[in-house]
Amino acid sequence: MINCIKNEIIKLIHNKKLYIFLLALVLLIVFKLIYMYSSSFGKTPSEQLKKKESVLIELKAEAKSESLSKEKKKDIDIQMKRLDEEIKMLKDNIANPDENWKNTMKNKIENLENEKGELSENLDSVEIEKCNAELQYYNYLLDNDIEPNKEYKIYAFEDITGIFDFINKMILPILIAFLCSDIIASEYTFSTIKALLTKPVSRRKIFCSKFLSNICIVTITICLMEFITFIIISLIFNFGNPSYPIIVGTKYVKASNNNLYINNISAVIGSSYIISAWKLILLNLFMQFIFIITCVSFVMFISTIFTNSITSLTINLGILMLISLITYILPLKFLNKLYPILFTTYSCGTDIIKGNLVMSLNSTIFSIPLGIVIMLIWSIVCYFISSKIFNKRDVLI
């Protein structure tokens, strides 16, 4: 078995597709880093001040509308008050850039406490929980003597998850389809299957070795590139703090009053909590590994059904590109009940951990445990069926 895996890994290493896969990954990561760097200029205090002043003008114009309900009017008033305070703090920050950060944190906490007191649970639990989360974040910084990151700077520990998200959402499934789609089909296309079966190894071991070798190659390649990216960010920008707080875990439920909530979803008060940046990275890597296993299993399944390499590649790319597109780029409302059972939905660990997926796909059941279960079910079913097909077809040859 081990020798079979070694042979398959050697075949993959000599496969030109691996180097195309690697080159594409490098180019895409470089593109993302350039985008992150250029975007950071729009997060400087002066740029933020311009944006917040523009939003405040729009809210003031909206508040004058006579068609607004009392609840909506109150919500806009709270938003305007909050913006006024943020604009004041930004102006102070620009005027006194060397001011003690602890004083700034204390002012933010005081403003949030006042804002929280004005909010009503019947108004918008999403805003209330956002307040709670920010209060946890600022208090954690103060209690642990951690200076807050500058929004216009890039930090390795805090921003590497942005690279994970970029890779996992659209790129990883497509690259896996490109690299692994002919894992079985090519043996039939180039008539090497007969020679393969003459080896004193069972068909199940041959199939399993192909499966494991592809998982190893994809995982090692992706993790190596992510590690190199982490080092590059550390050297060029900032290393960051592995213990830096990240707000995660916000839970959502279907709203009882549909008129008050975005997507008819309300937040569970007190559900958000803090984890360290290094823990978020490990959780992302774990979810990424499970997703790689699932994606390879699915691609192998299609490769086993269609014995032509080009057909297998076309179908794999088509399916994974389409599903990723309608999940992360153009989500469709009528598929809300289908999204939770698609393995591609769980490709981005950060969105699940932070609860962002709930709001974007309008479903409250997304969670890490559910994602792991769904992906493992897909992996087992795809592997079992494709293994059966492979063994049965071999008998006919």
Automatic annotation (TrEMBL):
GO terms for cellular component: plasma membrane. It holds the Pfam family ABC2_membrane_2. Keywords: Coiled coil, Membrane, Transmembrane, Transmembrane helix. One of its GO terms (molecular function) is ABC-type transporter activity. The keyword NADP does not apply. The chain crosses the membrane at residues 18-37, 170-190, 211-240, 285-307, 313-331, 365-385. This is ABC transporter permease subunit. It comes from Clostridium senegalense.
